[in-house]
Amino acid sequence: MSAEKDMIDSLRQAGMRLTPQRTEICRILAHRDDHPTAQQVASSIQERFPNVSLTTVYGTLDALVKLGAIRSLGNVGDERVHFEPNTEPHVNLACMSCHRIVDMPSEHVKELESEVQDRIGSKVLSGRVVYYTECLESNDKHQCPFYQAMQKKEQKDGE
């Protein structure tokens, strides 16, 4: 099942009205490869729906977080809350200079989530593991050594 469909289904099951704007927010989140802020989501949706309010964006993001369809990562040194649709257990690597966040798969984090669920006897709704680092301050993520290292590892793992 796609992330977009999961988010839409979560809103529907919660009894929320599926407006075109809410559906578009889900589409935007599902098709981004970064961890956008509410303001970035609002900018993206306003291309199709110029009159959508920031309140609608925040409300939808808040509902999706409470439903477990997306995760809220808090800020990474930029005083903005970042969101992500990847709800699978993983590590978030956050550059404190350029504020980019990169997902790093980790079997250890999956095992930890299972251990916590077993111990408490109920489903873990959300959790996060974030490692903060420094990088060259750059507008081009390709210049960030942190991003470059992740790309090299992914290429090596893909061979």
Question: How does this structure look, described?
Answer:
The chain has a 3-stranded mixed sheet with strand order 4-3-5. Strands 1-2 form a two-stranded antiparallel ribbon. The chain has 6 helices and 5 strands; from the N terminus they run H-H-H-H-E-E-E-E-H-E-H. The protein folds into 2 domains: 1-85, Arc Repressor Mutant, subunit A; 88-159, Dna Ligase, domain 1 (2-Layer Sandwich), CATH 3.30.1490.190. A hairpin with a 7-residue loop joins strand 1 (71-74) and strand 2 (82-84). The chain has helices spanning 3-13, 20-31, 38-45, 54-66, 107-120, 145-158, and strands spanning 71-74, 82-84, 90-95, 101-105, 129-133. It has 159 residues and is of the alpha+beta class.
What's the number of extended β-strand segments? 5
Arithmetic mean of pLDDT: 85
CATH topology tier name of the largest domain? Arc Repressor Mutant, subunit A
Structural class comes to alpha+beta
- Main β-sheet: number of strands, strand sense, barrel status? 3 strands, mixed
How many whole angstroms does the radius of gyration measure? 17 Å
Q: Regions with pLDDT < 50 over 5+ consecutive residues? A: none
Number of H/I helices: 6
Order of strands across the widest beta sheet? 4-3-5
DSSP strand content:
5-15%
CATH architecture of the largest domain: Orthogonal Bundle
CATH-assigned homologous superfamily of the largest domain: Winged helix-like DNA-binding domain superfamily/Winged helix DNA-binding domain
Helix content: 40-55%
**How are helices and strands ordered from N to C?**
HHHHEEEEHEH
What form results from the Cα inertia axes? globular
Identify the quaternary structure here: single chain
Estimate nothing, just give the exact number of structural domains: 2
Just give the CATH class of the largest domain.
Answer: Mainly Alpha
Through-space gap between termini: 27 Å
